[in-house]
Structure formats: C-alpha cells, structure tokens
Amino acid sequence: QTVLQGIVLLPLRAICFAVIVLLAWLFASIATFRQPGKGSVPLKGWRRRMVQTTLSCLTRTAFFVMGFQVKVKGKIASLLEAPIFVAAPHSSFFDAIICALTGMPSIVSRAENFSTPVFGTILNSLQPVSVSRQDPDSRKNTVTEITKRALSRGQWPQVT
Questions:
Q1: How far is CA 155 from CA 50, 90, 144, in A?
Q2: The Phospholipid/glycerol acyltransferase domain covers which part of the protein (predicted)?
Q3: Model confidence at 19, in pLDDT bands (50, 70, 90)?
Q4: C-alpha 38: how far from its chain's center?
Q5: Which string of b and e fits 113-129 if b means at least 16 CB within 10 Å?
Q6: Please, are residues 149 and 83 in contact by the beta-carbon 8 Å criterion?
Q7: Cα–Cα 20 to 30 A to 38, which of 57, 70, 108, 130?
Q8: One-character DSSP codes across 41-105
C-alpha cells in the first residue's frame, strides 16, 4: 500500500510543485517588469508587497506540498529590529524555508545564479546582493552593499 501511495503522490507532488514554481516566476516577472533602477533601487509599493506576500505564500505552499510543516516558536524579528539576519550553514534548500517565513528577504547570492531559467527571475525579484567570484573586490563590495542596506532604515528588505 505504501508503494502505491508513492506512485500516486510523487507525480502529484511534482506537478503541484511545478505549478507553484511557474506561478512564482509569473509574479516575480510582474513585480520586476520595467523596474526602475533594476537592482540598484529598492522595490517599493505594490511591487515590494507582491514579492513579500505572494512569493512567501507560494514558497510555504511549495514546502507543504513537498511534505514539510514548519511551526514558528517565538516572535520573528522585524526589519527595523534586525536589518540583517544570518541563516547558516547554507548547505541545503532549508534556507528557503527561513526566507519564506521571514517575508522573503534579500539574500547574498553568486552572480551566476541570476542567469538560471525561471529561478533566476524569482531570485532577482528578491533584490539579492550579488557576489562575483571573478571580481577580486567582490568581498569588499558585498560588505559595502550589505552595510548600505542595513543602514537604510527599512527602505531595503532584510538581508540574510
């Protein structure tokens, strides 16, 4: 009976996950369409709300479809309380759960990830801090950008 459940559930979960990812891509595309300042200016108004609420909800739904149920104990720090938070050790996809629960913050990501089909668009909508492995000044530039965003008094999303 368990094998039969797996035969039915696996394709069903895969289809649901694919639909959720495509919806996330659609909303990320809408939020970043003709975005002024493309990455150098924070998203504002409906664009920022769309990314924070819709993508957060879709990410939580995707994890639920995959069989994860996450409960938050305690209070999540607000953007003004904690403009930077650390999710470590970055060794699995579980970091995405933290991002979904905290309202889709900006992340630090390598520049190569932005060119990935579908996921690159979703990633760009989160207004990530880009790290280039070829640039010798990348580490310094990353620290400068994180500091700028942390001191922006809520104009930029939290940075993780």
A1: 16, 26, 16
A2: 70-156
A3: very high
A4: 17
A5: eeeeeeebbbbbbbbbb
A6: yes
A7: 57
A8: S---HHHHHIIIIIIHHHHHHHHHHTT------S-PPPTTT-SB-------STTHHHHHHHTT--
Token pair for residue 138? 């990348």
Closest to 147 measured CA to CA, from 64, 51, 156: 156
93, two tokens = 């996809």
Query: pLDDT (tens digit, 9 = 90+) per residue, 56-96?
Result: 999 999 999 988 888 888 888 888 888 888 777 676 777 88
Rounded to whole angstroms, the Cα distance separating 3 from 117 reads: 33
> Are the C-beta atoms of 51 and 103 separated by less than 8 Å?
no
Domain ranges of the chain: 1-151
Least confident of 1-5, 23-27, 141-145: 1-5
